[in-house]
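Listing S7. Sequence submitted for prediction.
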Amino acid sequence: MTKNIKTSASSLVDISDNTCVRTSKELQLKRRIASQFSRAAKRYDCAAQVQIDIARDALRLFKQQAYGLKEGGSAEKSSKYILDIGCGTGRVTRQLAALNINSHQHIMAMDLAFGMLQYAQQTTTNKAAEQQAGKVQSIQWIQGDAEHIPIGDNTAGGVFSSMALQWCNNSALVCREINRVLAPNAQGVLAIMCTGSMHELDACWQHIDSERQINHFDSAENWFNAAKAAGLQVEMLQKNFITWHANVRELLGSMKQIGANVVTSNTRQKTIGRQTLQYLEQYYQREFGNTQGLPLTYSVCFLKLRKNAN
């Protein structure tokens, strides 16, 4: 049974403490991630150009995978429910809804961060009013965790996720959950940040302050193998996206603005002092800087999925 965020802003319900059994450390981490992204909600769309680029590629693959569409084509049919895991501000969710492939189609927009869902629901309502569009009713806002998806078995006719699943600790559990909730023959696309992401920053920290950590994301191969082990048919593509920054302060700020500065280990992170920041700037400039500025790489794997018929 789904747990919904109602259409009225006054009736939003926080269900972060659901009935799933979890360890205290896991809950603490989930809450920290959710809190960070909730705080980033209002500024996220303005700061998240790389996420826009990645989502654009993921959406194109999704349209081809789930509906057999080529670039510029129009869809004729779809299943009733499409699950958007990690919907964030709802920007891509609205694009999914705008496909309007089936007048009875519903998008189940799920996110761990309650603040993101509040922002997404309100923004979508406002945009619909401005454009006199009727797509709001086709979106169902759900607070949920990709490792414990709060919908029934064989419910979703398609799944989409862009730049959300890298925050999960257990890729095998995520893929089993996706396989569980997908209907037979249902398809989808997942875009996941993986090993190699932010390698420039990691290399600099190892030189400047080896105790400081960045997130070490799961490998593309592990995600591919987890999807196969879950019983899904899977194809994988990989692509690097690079953002450029004038200095280290701007680079770190870009991560914070989109909530990506959460470190998923339980290690408490130290405040970056002025001298440390200066050392980091000098080393980063020397090792990676060029005329375009300082690069920060996002290494992304795109998984194209299909659930078996039986």
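Caption to Listing S7: primary sequence and predicted structure tokens for the chain studied. The two ends are 22 Å apart (CA to CA). The chain has nine helices and eight strands.
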